[in-house]
């Protein structure tokens, strides 16, 4: 329970309208997009400037109040659930894109800015911000950095960490910290931007970033490839990568996902297919044409039926199918558990076999789609959390999915983070020594464990 004297201090800092403490106002901030038990915070505070952030942090530090930084809450690992209650610091009012620099190819933006808005502003200036998580129309840049968000273009262009040049944040004592900058080369001090990527809010409160931008690609071409056997589709992915071609995107949908998307959207997907690959190549026109034809040959050799998008409308239809996969699957059952197992691309077919075997073993509906080009699959379990027996099978299936990924030299998360949802598995991947190192780092900076406590098991 928050003391009234502390609540008054918070209201003095941010104003009555930006400080919420009634139960009906707090419930929305007790959960995120992960299927985890909600926890009610004691207060939600929405700062409007950096000075207010600093003052709130100092009060939380003095009073021993847990502090959870939150953006849009689209994260899928329980990373913003206030496990110990405390103060949720809502960053959505700090949503400005402060600069698009066309001479030096960078952007400066606040933590609450929407990812899609940065991409749009870059495009207006003839530039390109590649990271494109599925939630990009809603997710905030602060959350993208905290979870190292990826997206469809990760295969060729990388993920958020590959574009973060600089960061500004406050530590738990309210000290201002800055790392990185606007130069291409920078070897001053620790790699603080690298430290803050994937930190999930446990090391500081980030409020401003510098992101690298790229020249916009000259042109692009897309194709949809139909397979009667998903293993052949998986082998195609490995063959494309082995041929030293990097498409901008290389996405996979399994049979169940294809049928579900088509039932919901009626966009003309082949419902008798066992798998689809959605492929886009971009860059200089001559290179695009050459790579596109090589990929087409590989697909045909592995029994794929290629449909080329001849115009912008057909291209949009192809990518609509992929971007609507999760929302369409979510129509089937009340509870959707989207996982994030990632394996080396050469082992993609082995992971697909494992997922199908696990689905049959536990009699569960699992639709699989994902960024096949970088080995990042999203096995999506459709269930009802009110069905206790089925949820027990779901938990065992998730255990098996991660076990299979780790056996294939994979990882627990390609882009969703660890949060509380995957914290119990983390030691299996990184070992006790790594966990101990993370704890020493965390408690050295935050000895009271007030910054987003218990995420990643620390």
Write a concise keyword list for the protein shown above.
single chain; alpha+beta; Uridine Diphospho-n-acetylenolpyruvylglucosamine Reductase, domain 3; 16 helices; Alpha-Beta Plaits; seven-stranded antiparallel β-sheet; 36% helix; 458 residues
Number of domains: 4
Derived structural class:
alpha+beta
Quote the average pLDDT.
96
Shape: globular
- Total count of helical runs of at least 4 residues: 16
Q: How big a fraction of the residues is strand?
A: 15-25%
Q: Note the main sheet.
A: 7 strands, antiparallel
CATH architecture of the largest domain: 2-Layer Sandwich
CATH fold type of the largest domain: Uridine Diphospho-n-acetylenolpyruvylglucosamine Reductase, domain 3
Return residue spans where pLDDT drops below 50 for at least 5 consecutive residues: none
Spatial arrangement of strands, main beta sheet: 15-12-14-13-17-18-16
This entry's quaternary arrangement is: single chain
Percent of residues in helical segments?
25-40%
| CATH C-level of the largest domain | Alpha Beta
Cα radius of gyration in angstroms: 22 Å
């Amino acid at each position: 329970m928050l003391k009234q004297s502390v609540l008054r201090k918070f209201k003095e800092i941010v104003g009555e309208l930006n400080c919420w403490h009634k139960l009906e106002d707090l419930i929305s901030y007790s959960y995120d997009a992960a299927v985890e038990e909600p926890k009610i915070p004691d207060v939600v505070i929405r700062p409007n400037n950096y000075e207010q952030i600093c003052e709130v942090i100092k009060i939380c530090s003095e009073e021993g109040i847990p502090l959870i930084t939150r953006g849009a809450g689209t994260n899928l690992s329980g990373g913003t659930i206030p496990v110990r209650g405390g103060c949720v610091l809502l960053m959505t009012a700090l949503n400005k894109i402060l600069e698009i620099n066309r001479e030096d190819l960078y952007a400066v933006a606040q933590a609450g800015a929407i990812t899609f808005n940065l991409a749009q502003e870059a495009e207006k200036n003839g530039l390109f911000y590649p990271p494109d998580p599925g939630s990009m129309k809603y997710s905030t840049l602060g959350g993208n950095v905290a979870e190292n968000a990826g997206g469809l273009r990760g295969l060729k262009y990388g993920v958020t960490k590959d574009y973060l040049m600089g960061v500004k944040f406050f530590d738990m004592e309210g000290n201002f910290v800055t790392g990185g900058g606007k130069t291409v080369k920078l070897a001053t001090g620790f790699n603080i931007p690298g430290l803050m990527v994937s930190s999930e809010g446990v090391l500081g409160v980030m409020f401003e970033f510098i992101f690298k931008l790229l020249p916009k690609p000259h042109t692009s071409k897309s194709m949809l490839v139909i397979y009667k056997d998903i293993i052949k589709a998986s082998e195609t992915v490995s063959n494309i990568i082995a041929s030293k071609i990097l498409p901008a995107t290389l996405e996979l949908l399994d049979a169940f996902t294809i049928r579900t998307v088509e039932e919901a959207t009626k966009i003309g997907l082949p419902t008798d297919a066992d798998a689809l690959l959605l492929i886009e190549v971009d860059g200089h026109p001559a290179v695009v044409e050459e790579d596109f034809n090589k990929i087409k040959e590989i697909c045909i050799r592995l029994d794929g039926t290629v449909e080329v998008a001849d115009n912008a409308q057909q291209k949009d239809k192809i990518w609509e199918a992929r971007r609507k996969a999760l929302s369409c699957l979510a129509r089937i059952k009340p509870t959707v558990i989207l996982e994030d197992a990632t394996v080396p691309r050469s082992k993609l077919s082995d992971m697909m076999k494992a997922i199908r075997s696990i689905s049959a073993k536990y009699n569960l509906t699992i639709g699989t789609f994902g960024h096949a080009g970088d080995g990042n699959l999203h096995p999506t379990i459709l269930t009802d959390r009110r069905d206790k027996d089925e949820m027990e099978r779901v938990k065992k299936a998730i255990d098996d999915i991660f076990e299979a990924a780790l056996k294939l030299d994979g990882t627990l998360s390609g882009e969703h983070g660890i949060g509380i949802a995957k914290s119990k598995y983390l030691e299996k991947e990184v070992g006790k020594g790594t966990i101990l190192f993370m704890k020493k780092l965390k408690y050295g900076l935050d000895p009271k464990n007030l910054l987003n406590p218990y995420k990643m098991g620390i």
